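Hi support team,

I'm filing this because I wasn't sure whether my run with 6-O-phosphono-alpha-D-glucopyranose finished correctly. The job status page said complete, but I'd like someone to confirm that the output block is well-formed before I use it downstream. Pasting the exact inputs I used:
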Amino acid sequence: EDAEKGGYQHFMMKEINEQPKAIRETLQRRIGKDGKIKLDGISLTREDLEKFDKISIVACGTAYHAGLVGKYAIEKMARMPVEVDVASEFRYRDPFVDEKTLFIAISQSGETLDTLMSLREAKSKGARVLSVVNVVGSSVARESDDVFYTWAGPEIAVASTKAYTTQLVCMYLLALYMGDLRGTITEDYYKQVLKELKATPKKVQRILDKAEDIEELAKNLYNRDQIFFIGRGIDSAVAYECSLKLKEVSYINSFAIAAGELKHGTIALMEPETIVIALATQDFLMEKMYSNIEEIRARRAHVIAVTKEGSQISKIKSLEVIRIPKCMDEVSPILTIVPMQLFAYYVARERGENIDKPRNLAKSVTVE
Ligand code: G6P
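And here is everything the job wrote out:
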């Protein structure tokens, strides 16, 4: 097993570090010589898209969080309505799905029972099924009309890292492809987002190269009882994944909420010992995040912001900041999650937890 860890102490750290390579692979498989996205083998034509009146994304755990980001991307780029459900809810709520639905299942293993059963339910109602899967030939892949593989390579650690970032890349590629077909984005925008995606492996590497900063932060915070994550827009979707990563490996009670919802309850919990990690990467929402951060700091809680280099928030005096490289707002989740994966890892390591196999959790949940 040690040999398979390639010199790392844990698979989780190995897989975090494999992300630049995995993302590059995902992109290379889907971008043709002409610089355009190719769906080889997947039939998604303009006529197909015209037949669908909505997209329904279903998944569990981390894959569900990738689905939340997918909704932002598809709605923005392809201008189609998207619903996202956790599979265990979808399958029991008599979902409104028919032959006009494009059903997208996201699953690393392709064996998660709830996701598989949801897929069958959607299929039986006539939906077209496209899946975003990592394990080639898995049940979800076999039962789908089309498969968009993530090509992340085997993921061993229970806490998902490279599967998530490659799922994000797939969702962006799908969103862009659909937007292009439907004429809801310009040629320039298409090229710009693709260029940004191609730049992510290097940017992720830059974050990894500064892992010691995150290790330091983890050493200061590892013995906390609870940590909050907040964000707006696409950052709120990432906040859920940050929180899940932290709690599954460190057992710290972490909680994520859309920053605008704080005032409807959660702000009541803010007191001097509280730690809040504020994801603030969206330029167009910066003013709003700024106010949220100030509201929390006014209760003397401690805020750590994750933001782009040079952002207005990174200049606030005495605010602890984790910087990610500059990027287009749309693709920031691929970067934002990386320091938070490292944070979860280092916190768990400081606490002496069994990082690759957290208690009570399984890599793939094939039972109800
Ligand atoms: C388990 C794993 C998670 C994963 C979820 C969904 O809970 O521990 O890491 O996100 O299942 O798995 P899937 O294979 O369908 O993506």
